[in-house]
Amino acid sequence: MNESSWGAPPHTGPQAGYWGPTDQGPVQGAAPAGPAYDAPKAQHTRPMPIVPEGPAYGGDQDDDRGAARLSGPLFRDETPQAPPPGAVQQNPEPMPDAPQPAPPPQKKSAGRDLGAAIGVGVGLGVVIIASLFVVKAVFVGVIAVAVVVGLWELTSRLQERKGIKAPLVPLALGGAAMVVAGYVRGAEGAWVAMALTALAVLVWRMTEPPEGYLKDVTAGVFAAFYVPFLATFVALMLTADDGPWRVLTFLLLTVVSDTGAYAVGWRFGKHKLAPRISPGKTREGLVGAVSFAMVAGALCMQFLIDDGAWWQGLVLGLAVAGSATLGDLGESMIKRDLGIKDMGTLLPGHGGIMDRLDSLLPTAPVVWLLLVLFVGSG
């Protein structure tokens, strides 16, 4: 324990060691200055300090100069006395750190509410299956609603985080029209609706001041392509004679790919796949996605698709795993740029609609094209 543990640190310099006056004038509580204590002579004369027999200010209070009192241990093996109430310790001797108990081992967490996620997933699956196999037009309406909600989430986050005002009204109307045109008029109808939606975005934005026009319309055209145009390929699949089974195959392969990546990556994942984009994704998870999707693809092509073959399902599953992973990474890149974790909070355990469409949207044209090449447009 150092000497300043219970009082002020020792003074150094020309005023240290006594309460005499300085060249700045007399000191409070000291004898009146005289010739022997004039400032010029005090610089060359160091009289012995006069120790008062009692406290200068009465009681145990420290003087206002912070001088050390004659208290505290004289030797290191003496037990120090506790400081008076309100006293401030200066340079206290550090106490040894007390041993801290080891933290209990933490269980590996999946990172989300699995109960809510499974419940919402099952509910969505029931709605999709019921609308898909009862009336095709109802399922087209489900796609259109998902597109509009996804556009609302995307444009809202762009405005909140980046100040980009992509016009929602022409996007929502054009996006719904795009899905319907793809189902009714095929690929040509989808392309025409996409072009008209882009034109509507350009014109709609002209009603506001020109500042930020370029970034707003660019974001609007991007949103029109990213959400409704890619979703139109699901409607194109539905137009085939076995359209519901093609759409079901597309949904199953995408879900199985995501599930395989999630399960294998959570259990065995050690090597990051793209740490700068999505730190949670691993190479082991990608292997799980490919394996699960290829097995599911072989089964679906063999038993669900007319004139399909198991080897075609292997190719289809491999392509789905790749496109679903890229789609997930693509939206992760968008969310990192925006500084958000989820696009929305509409689906407990999942985030928003866009957080569920991230793998589906880029996978739709891949599945549509491969099915056309393997078994025709039907």
Automatic annotation (TrEMBL):
Residues 24-42 have a biased composition (Low complexity). It catalyses: a 1,2-diacyl-sn-glycero-3-phosphate + CTP + H(+) = a CDP-1,2-diacyl-sn-glycerol + diphosphate. Its EC number is 2.7.7.41. It is an enzyme of class 2 (transferase). Residues 1-111 are annotated as: Disordered. Pfam families: CTP_transf_1 (PF01148). Pathway: Phospholipid metabolism; CDP-diacylglycerol biosynthesis; CDP-diacylglycerol from sn-glycerol 3-phosphate: step 3/3; Lipid metabolism. It is a multi-pass membrane protein. Residues 93-106 have a biased composition (Pro residues). Keywords: Cell membrane, Lipid biosynthesis, Lipid metabolism, Membrane, Nucleotidyltransferase, Phospholipid biosynthesis, Phospholipid metabolism, Transferase, Transmembrane, Transmembrane helix. GO terms for molecular function: nucleotidyltransferase activity. It is found in: Cell membrane. The chain crosses the membrane at residues 114-132, 138-154, 166-184, 190-207, 219-239, 245-264, 285-304, 360-377. It comes from the Bacteria. Belongs to the CDS family. This is Phosphatidate cytidylyltransferase.
